[in-house]
Amino acid sequence: MKYPVVLHPDKLLKRKAEKVTAITEELVTMLDNMYETMVAHDGVGLAAPQIGQSLRVAVIQADEEDDILELINPELVAYEGETVDIEACLSIPGQYGLVPRYDRIVIRYFDREGVEYELEADDYFSRIIQHEMDHLDGHLFIDKATKLMTEEEMVQYMEELEND
Ligand code: CO
Fold first, then answer.
1. 12-53 confidence digits (pLDDT tens)
2. Is 36 one of the catalytic residues?
3. Which of 17, 83, 110, 142 shows its CA 20 to 30 Å from the CA of 148?
4. How many C-beta neighbours within 10 Å does residue 79 have?
């Protein structure tokens, strides 16, 4: 089942989400439905506040061939470097922005079996994780962007990058 995506400026997107205290059948179903919702919108990540649930949960799939990454109660444990790149968000259609992020991160999280993992990520994958984890603290990419762009401006920016 697909969920409707909560759109900016809904107040729920600004709220700090609650920690998951138990992995229930409802939570597992929610994870499945979040994945379905993300794929239906051609997204690479989706956080629970975006489907109206104030919980510290996110799903990520940077590429179709990648495994689905399900983050429950993720925590940032280490980071280094900085990189700036374009971001977008299913909750803010038509808006793009240049956002500075850590280049490399290490996070700790739980999966749907309740197993704790540590994960190191860099580059684009690291960026998606940071974007989704920001949602859990009520932060949107438009608040961190050093430059906001329309779709037209974003396409132009990408073309200029390719021509360099
Ligand atoms: Co987003």
1. 999 999 999 999 999 999 999 999 999 999 999 999 999 999
2. no
3. 17
4. 15
